[in-house]
Amino acid sequence: MASRREYSFEIVDRCEALYINEEKTFEEITKVIGVSIAQVQRWAKKYEWKKKKEEFRNRVSKAQEETRALVREEVLLQDLVNQKNLMDKYFKDREYDKADSNTVSNYINIVNNVSKLLQDIRKRDENLRNMQKVDRPQVFLDFMRDLVSFLKDHDPEALTALEKNFDEFIAFAKAKYA
Amino acid sequence: MQTYENKDLRREILKTLYLAKSSSFKIRILLRALRPTGFSDLSEAALLAEIIYLQKKGFIEVEKTKNLLTEEECDLIAISPKGIDLLEGNCSDIGVSNGK
Above 80 in pLDDT, residue A4? Predict the structure, then answer.
């Protein structure tokens, strides 16, 4: 019986990136990388590409929605500030109690809304920055999962050595990357 | 060429006004706020048509106002309580997409 060809982890990673980040189909991956479709399907199942793709899509779509909302809020804020400046000029030579009560009420409303909108923009900006941050613990866990899976297939002795020294290895990684 | 659905545009108009904490805006400001959200080819006339639709349905309020300094007249648009209810999912409408 013919034995299955072994592939480097770089190839598996490249295929995963094509599927998840670049939205390529299995057939397209096969053409680009030159591996069989059955092999790509096996990797997809083993490394849960479908689930990862869904998570990636959700993250991207959330970030896009946040960005769009941020842009909209900034345009609206700019106009509110313009409205406020206009009213500041109007009130400059008038006393508030002698001005039209509707205009005063509008003015107060605009000032309040400028402040609320500014708070929202700051919050959204912060959220977006957090979304763009790399989740280092998750990257580490993913890497460990891949490493264990790789060693299991290619070098069981190394896996045993890793298991024996696991606590020491985690302490070393924490000191270096945490 | 129009590359969007009217129902989606109506929802985006309401969302934009909702984001603004019920403040009122001129149609040109709304147009500027909407264009980067997937409606890059949206014209002022097309937006006005949807504003009239949403106003007739009671989802937005349009108020005629005067520029305090120049006395120039313009329309200010704001979301209504009914529009807020729609966006918050307390009711639905056949003419506005449900955002899913």
Answer: no
d(CA A141, CA A138) in angstroms, rounded, equals: 5
Whichever domain contains A36, its CATH number is 1.10.10
Q: Is A86 on the interface with B (CB under 8 A)?
A: yes
Give the pLDDT mean for A68-86: 90
The residue-averaged pLDDT of A78-92 equals 87
When scoring A83, A92, A111 by the number of chain B Cβ atoms within 10 A, the one with the most, hence best to mutate, is: A83
Q: Does B100 touch chain A (CB under 8 A)?
A: no
Q: What CATH number should be reported for the domain holding residue B34?
A: 1.10.10.10
User: The complex's ipTM?
Assistant: 0.81
Question: Is B44 within 8 Å of B27 (Cβ atoms)?
Answer: yes
Q: Which residue among A72, A116, A120 places its CB closest to the CB of B33?
A: A72
CA distance B68 to B73: 10
pTM: 0.68
Query: Nearest 5 degrees, angle CA B70-CA B72-CA B73?
Result: 150
